Amino acid sequence: MGKKIHAWLAVILFASAIILPALAESFTLKIYGNANMDNVIDEKDIEYIRGIVSGTQSPTMFSDVNLDGMIDENDAVLAEKIVTGTEENLTIIDSANSTITVKYPINSLVSLNQHSAECIKILGEEEKIIGVEQYAADKTEFFPDLSKLPVVKSGSDCDFEKILSLHPDVAIAYGWNGAVSSSLEYGKSLEPHVTVIGLNLYQPFNISQEMAQLGYLMGNPKMAYEFIDFYESYLDTINERISQIPEDNRVRVYLEQNKDFAAASNGSGLNDICTLAGGNNIALGLAGSSPTVDQEWVIQENPEIIVKTANHGNKYMGYEKENATDVRALRESIINRTGWKTIKAVQDDMVFILSDSNAAKPTFFIGVAYLAKFFYPDLFTDLDPQDIHQEYLTRFQRLDFNLDRQGVFVYPPLEG
Length: 416
Prior knowledge:
Layout: H1 2-14, H2 43-54, H3 73-84, E1 89-93, E2 99-103, E3 109-111, H4 114-122, E4 129-133, H5 134-138, E5 151-154, E6 157-158, H6 160-166, E7 170-173, E8 176-177, E9 180-181, H7 182-190, E10 195-198, H8 207-217, H9 221-242, E11 252-256, H10 269-276, E12 280-281, H11 295-301, E13 305-310, H12 325-335, H13 344-347, E14 351-355, H14 364-375, H15 385-396, E15 410-411
Helix pairs in contact: 2-3, 8-9, 9-14, 10-14, 14-15
């Protein structure tokens, strides 16, 4: 693998960049008022709506801001209110593909998935959260204040009576998650008393759009775009370098999720971050997002790198861990699987454990940085995933948490 990268390193450093489309630039913001169908609502949308009225522009999906079937000056006025933050209602298409109108401003909400709680903290609007799910309550290091709030959901069990007793304006749940829409199901029990919004906030290729939506919903789009710009700057650097590595020269990777022999295939967040990091996933052609494989298949495929994720907050990794004793044992158990000493990744000591708190999560970009470092260390000598993680915690989560002394997120630790 090292010779392969050295051969391409000079080409990549001196050739002109072929940059993959940036995630933040490639989405259409799904909020009515985004008349010109870009990724933000601004003065250009007001002008575009007036262009529709005058006949110089064509109607678009989000130009009828009040959804009255006509595009007129009233829509331009409403778009202007969104730009100035004085709107009374905001209508979006959420992650469940539902058209939701939210009364504005949102003063209180319950977070029915931990990702929404994390993202609302990024926006600095966590004081509006009045109830959380058990996963968030269990993360006392990461959610020191939110973990003390009433728990309104545990696993798949949602306490609708408790939610209604809190009188929130909004509940944020997962949208479509495979074949199930939590937000649609919860809406049957909570609406019309509580507006239920589906936002997944964990899929790498959708999160920028959802984060921007959340920014508008919470009244702080500026911080949402600041966060998007933050992680896009790192992803752009990674994309620029790996885009010039031919497919045949990319490392072959076996990705294993939390459950033993549960590979990551198309549709999984782990596969998405592997793609963004330039890896060639050996399980990509298998059916399902988490196909079960046998160890003989892995031996036959002979991957160059093995990456296994471990649950955040469990016995192996996370913000609550004080040492790497358990995850070291986990890695040893993988290396010592029957017949695996013949696999190139094991022989080359290229077996890594990654905390899934930085995989299919709002911090997926940290996972991408780690994978890029695993896959192409010579190409990313200047990339420090822990520094990115630390900046995220300090700048966007406003946590006094020192990664040099606290938590375990990757094993073995990276050098350089």
